[in-house]
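During the no-cost extension, the postdoctoral fellow (Dr. R.K.) reprocessed legacy sequence entries with the updated structure-token encoder. One reprocessed record is reproduced below for audit purposes.
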Amino acid sequence: MSLAVSPYPKGVLRPGGPLPVLLRRHWPLLPLAATVLFLLAPLPAGDATASGKVGPADAASLLLVSVCAVQAVRGRVRVLSPLGVLVLGAPGVGLAVATMTAGDPYAALPGFVRYLQVFVLVPAAVVLLVRDAGEFRLAAGCFLVLALVQGALGVVQYATQTGASYQGEDIRAVGTFGPGDVMGMATVVAYGLIAATALALAPGLAPRVRRTAGGVALLLVVPLVLSFSRGAWIATSGAALLVIVLAGIRRALKVLVALCAAGVVLVGGLGVGSDMVGERLASITQVSSAPDQSVTDRYTMWAAAESMWRERPAVGVGLKGFPANRDGHSSLGLSSGSDTAGAGQAFLRQPLLSPHNMYLLVLSEQGLTGLTALAGGWAVLLVAGLSRLAPGGRVRGAGLRGDAHMRDCGLIAVGLFVWQLVDFLYADIGGPSTVLTGVIVGLAAWWALPSPEGGGSGGRSRGGAVAAAGGRTGMRAVPGADGP
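Re-encoded structure tokens follow.
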């Protein structure tokens, strides 16, 4: 008997092995993974802000949209329901109206392109290209990797006093985003924390996976606290509480006890920024009694945005019109900007160019037309997503068995989306992490708006595609269990 000797060294995957099969099947997701993971790249030294600039993640998102267009021409994307087309396409109409009615349409064009990228093109690409629960989990895994790396860097910045300046000390955890985008690290860490919490509580996953996810969630609490970002704290608390409740009251009580214990140990026992964290938390309620300058500026700009809307209630002052109209609608209490320094960058005073409230920004620049198109679609996604997670919920294109199998996807999608909607009360788009907003909206729409064909790809049903992949890799396919 002769023994065949493999020409490949031990441990090296052969052509046609599992990795090439996975790449052939999931290669359209590579730009999606790059859109998330390219945010690990640091900003150029001395660049305190990346607003208005095209970064690596933005370039990857454009590639994602291009791949989606090619796959759509080839008939290899999911089929959208009429409701899905309406929800994803309506913001484009509002943006077009706001651009054409702006005082300077040419100056509004960059805003039109940015909004179209974040709220129309990237979400649509995610919905069309992510074909099953496995691919959804791959996308969620990218968020976890991004959060862990950025969070670890933020903790190091706090420990070594190499972070952004906060109360005279360079201790604020900002990751690679720098002091010009102090919300960047807090945002991506919060995304990872919500996703990890959902995985830790989701039924149907292996106990080892749930325990690992729970540990990741607890670890990410540390950099989130050290970001000193009040808006991120509020949004994370609200979204995590919703995920915990949706996962079940019994699990909710256990997780809440664990989180409270972790908070006591971190802040009280180990003294992780306890004094500063306490002051930051207390400042949330100091709106009318001795608010700090950042709170005063925020509410002054909110009033200015409302004044702009009252001037042109239907279409607003036009995209990119808030900075030009700010001074004419603001009181004398507004400062000239915010101070930024630290994390390897020199002192810089950044101008206040937005109201730091997404809803008021849209209302002031796009009027009721734009806000209805944008926020109305978000409301539809939220209600539809929650209805699928409700006990006994059933949607067209997916049976009860399929919904139960994908419950972790639903918890992640709804949790991330709710975080974004709450955070928009205190922030708006801007900075390198903005492109992730489009990915979040896309994941939420993927869950909330299932395909009329059960999530199929092109002319071949999803069950057939999964079965074909299972035949090549030796995995058993479960019809109706892996598509939305």
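Confidence is low (pLDDT under 50) at residues 1-17, 45-50, 394-402, 455-484. The beta strands are 164-166, 169-172, 338-342, 345-350. The remaining legacy entries will be reprocessed before the final report is submitted.
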